[in-house]
Specification:
Oligomer: homodimer
Distance between the termini of chain A: 45 Å
Helix content of chain A: 55-70%
Order of helices and strands of chain A: HHHHEHHEEHH
Strand order of the largest sheet of chain A: 1-3-2
Largest sheet of chain A: 3 strands, antiparallel
CATH superfamily of the domain at 41-125 in chain A: Winged helix-like DNA-binding domain superfamily/Winged helix DNA-binding domain
Low-confidence stretches of chain A: none
Structural class of chain A: mainly alpha
DNA sequence: TGAATATATGAACAATCATTCATATATAAT
DNA sequence: ATTATATATGAATGATTGTTCATATATTCA
């Protein structure tokens, strides 16, 4: 797989071994990256925002975002499958809310990172 | 954009207004989702893992991951552009490392979420 | 200067993804 | 039972993305 060898193989042997030894299994990597991938879409980030301290049905979310019920429903399925949201059925209506506090924590932490690195001030991002 | 109206518009008016008012601007949503999107790829998560408490050159990372230098270099460019990694040049060699502690914090928080929700135990994920 | 090494990048291609459209399911109301 | 409402889902499509291949840049060494 590696195209050609370089001197680093010998010079950095310890650091390379350290990285190899502490590398998680592939399916763990897959779980974690899949989780972030779900957070990595503007539509889903908007849905997550709408659900901060708010329980909304599909119809509500569609109106907040000015998108079709179908598009929202498809995205909610992905958020459900990643355990980012939970839902509660009441008659015909399905109410969605955030599954736990981690989602908001992750959102806030990413926001802090962007404020620090991109120089966007807190006011604009709040 | 919305396909048809539903009763929620009136019944949930307050909740809908709350979500609309607290919704960040579109470009803010874009920044945050773009950040998570960068974390949402197995190759990049592996690179991030390799760089935990470790400064490595492109060649090292390629060997750790058993991938071509070109593929790694492309991914490092994305990580650089998202300010996830920083780099330091020493002659021909470019050493990469994580830009700040947020990246590792986000990784750990996502791991905790997965452990809690997916029932994977801590041992497997560490 | 010229050859070798380390990294970066543009173009191409296959794979993945978000939305739309049509349709299906489930519940409520008449 | 029939109709209306709320949500879910399969297929199709245009857009985006990760890797490969070829090539370019930058630095070191002879």
């Amino acid at each position: 797989m590696v195209d050609y060898d370089c001197q680093c193989e010998e010079l950095h042997e310890n650091k390379i071994q350290k990285a190899i030894i502490s590398m998680p299994e592939d399916n763990i990597i897959k779980y974690i990256s899949a989780f972030f991938k779900i957070m990595g879409d503007p539509t889903r980030i908007k849905i997550i925002n709408a659900l901060f301290d708010n329980e909304l049905c599909v119809c509500d979310i569609a109106e907040v975002m000015n998108m079709t019920h179908s598009a929202i429903s498809h995205q909610l399925r992905l958020l459900r499958e990643a355990d980012l949201v939970k839902y509660r059925k009441e008659g015909k209506v399905v109410y969605y809310s955030l599954n736990d506090e981690h989602v908001e924590q992750l959102y806030e932490l990413a926001k802090i990172h962007i404020i620090e690195k991109r120089g966007l001030n807190a006011k604009i991002l709040s």
